[in-house]
Every structure is written in structure tokens, then in C-alpha cells.
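Human: If only I could read C-alpha cells as easily as an amino acid sequence. Take your time, and here it is.
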Amino acid sequence: MPETKDREGYAFNLHLVCGGFAYFSTLSNWVSYGEHGREVRRPRRVYVDTFQSLLIALGHCTANIVSEEDYTSWLMYRGWGIVTKALVRERMPQWLQGRKCISDGVGVFTDVALASPGALSHSISSTKKRIVSNRDNAQCLECGRGLSKDGIKLTMHHVRPFGRGGETTTRNLVCLCEECNQKVADEHVIEYFRKANLPYTLDANLVRGEFTKDSFAMALMITKNMMHTRAEVA
């Protein structure tokens, strides 16, 4: 049976409520681009029955938030909540605001308000350089040359380009020699994630049961539109 508009709502995975803020994840839509190619995104509506079935298939429990009492209880127990459009617009309009985001290797978006200064800066700390160099065996992931055996100077490369919203974290940095770095430029080469043993496909935490072809596909669908953010609890 085709979905109907009156079965639309919003899906929020509520992680934490503290200091007057609710920290949550939600499916999101692109709104516009900001500085450094960062996307501005806002929560998107979902078809309630379909999305709830999807979450259940992935092993999650969900709460239907249709009243003030449901909302108050959900703030206490947290987890996935499917909230009616009417209640969101009346009680939670601040949850729907657009957020400037950076993105990680698996394509999840994070509100810049939650990001550390280091993740937002193009410059890379010595600690991050050391961690990435040790992880990548101090060699270029493209050509295999390194400082110790070849005398080649290594650079830190943003796999998801910084100028296209990529974060400056060890999960998005790899070692490349200067020559290979210049050749790659701002191309997004996801193969580097695999070579560095970094996650780059989906948020594995979405699958609470057995990993199957179907669960992988369902989790991948959610991952590519996921946004982590926060909103003030009125």
C-alpha cells in the first residue's frame, strides 16, 4: 500500500540530555553550502511505518512520540523516537533548524557546534600527525614510499577534502608523499580509507543484530543521510 503524507513524522535517536541540551542523531536533507564546502542540513521527514520497520529489522526499539507525556518519558529513557509532525512543530521547532556540518569517512554529518576546534581547522596538530604516521607505517598509501627507506617527505592528506566539508581528524587523514598528494589534489579517493583500515561505508552501530546483506543495505541507507547535532530542551 502506498505511503500517505499523514503517516509522515520525524525520527530522532536521542543519545543524551544534559545542560539544557538534547544530543541526537537524525536523518537529514541538504539545504545549502557554507564556508569550506560544509553542508547546511536540517532534519527530514520519514514515513513512519516504513522507517520504524527498518529500525526494528536492525534490532532497535523505537518509541512513538505523540503526546507531551510521551515526549517527557522519551527525554528520560532516550533511544529512537518517531515523533509526529504536529508535536515537533508545536513542542520541538528548534530541533528542525538548519546546521552547518562537517563530514567523516562514512559520510555522517556532524554539527560544527559539536565539533572540536581541531576538527574544524585545516592545520593538523603534531599529535594527529604522529598517530596517522604510526598507523600508516610512515609510508605513502599511494606509492608505498616512506621517509626511513626512501627519504621521502610525507604529508597529511584529507581523504574527504577539507574544502568539501571534510573534518580534520585521524579518521579522515592519511599519509601521502608530496608528489602523490599534489596528484590527488581534492579528489575524494575512498580507497585510502580501506588501506588505512578506517571505516568508510556505514555506521556499524546501526546494526544491533546479525550482519547480513539486507541489514548492511538498510544501515547504509540510513548512514548516508545521518546528522549528529543538538537542540535546546525547552
